[in-house]
Fold this protein.
Amino acid sequence: MTKLLHTYPDYQKNKIVSKGNGSTLYFNDGSELFDMTGGWTSHCIVGWSNPRVIEVMKDQIDRICHIDYKVYVDQNREKLSELLLSQAEHDLDRVYFSGNSGGEACEAAMKLSYQAHYDSGKQTKNWFISREQSYHGSSTDALSVGDRPNLKFLKPLYPNKRVHVPEQNPYREMYDDESEEQYARRSADELEKAILEIGSDNVAAFIAETIQGGLVGFVPPAKNYWKYVREICDRHDVHLILDEVICGTGTSGKIYCCDWDQISPDFLFLGKTLASGYCPISIVLTHSGIEDVIRAGQGRIQHSTTHQGHSLGTAAALAVQTIIHESGFLDDVNAKSAWFRQFIERELSSEPFFRNIRGRGLRLAVEYDCPKQNEFGIAVSHNLLQRHNIIVDGKWHRFAFSPMLTITEAELFRALTAFVDSFKTIAKNWD
Ligand SMILES: Cc1ncc(COP(=O)(O)O)c(C=O)c1O
């Protein structure tokens, strides 16, 4: 009888993972799974058991596992900060090691935003605006700016002073008689309307994922949306906080997803992909203007956790990000992305249920429409698992793909051929 309290109490407990290698998981019963979900939560980007990451981690363990962030210098933190800013096209120039999870990074960014306003004498700026259909983590504060249907029952626990504006999703929210440009403007204007309703003197920040993430399936914004949002934030002295927990660190084909949109936020936070799951670690990027305000104000950041900037996590992140930042790595991600899209378009565009493929880099989603929509996604995923030992995240109205960035072309071909086969097989007999 297990003593483990599992998230799903009825979960199958006899299938034990023995090891992972590249994109493949191996089980104790001899079976294996090919993963197109980056470890289910899209965290793993350089494959399991990556020898380069393991070697660096072993060396770090031999020396020291963790030294405190506030008191000691860990050279790897400096090196990782340098590296993370080395290919950035935006203006952020400071890296704050916030903790372990994306949710913690979200909270740290919110607190930093409020502290910067507070230390500038604008204490009333303490409301946060975010978007529907978003997810920023499962701590109560991160939840309060998210919008996940199954977690709505927790709402009585949320702090107040939170407002949601509609999602930014050209596929669902754009009117038939509207151009993309008009939609970008209208959608950004919804933010400005919310700021004016609350009063700009009361709003600290707008928080959003650079591309709508896993919930709706990797939807890039309408062109110029972020440019308009940036202008609105500047007009009302509202910080722009971007969540790149799922779409940052090269997964979009650029190191930072917002670099596709050519804007610079005030804060940008990263988590799960930073160390590719080899250790939990998260960070917040910001700019020296925020540091100056805090230096002149309270003189310290009023957020800290025991394991922030964890030394082993930092070493792992440095090893992972060294791989991601290597010359040619992102060209390879973009080439695989282009091939992925062409393959799906070619194979599925004449299928009646197929709607589109969209996303950036290797954060891609296939949208479909049919009767019993949710069941269709689950049935296709199940078929793929049973017949091909491949795992994809299919439900609601989309299949979300977040393969390891190190996936080979041959593996991608095999996985997508199998996916197309399962999609067509299930669609053929769907009523
Ligand atoms: C976009 C986004 N932000 C934040 C988070 C929260 O990260 P964590 O689960 O590490 O707290 C997630 C997790 O799925 C995410 O997808």
Q: What stands out?
A: Residues 41, 101-103, 135-137, 209, 213-214, 243, 245-246, 271-272 surround pyridoxal-5'-phosphate (CB under 6 Å). The longest helix spans residues 329-348. The longest strand covers residues 203-209.
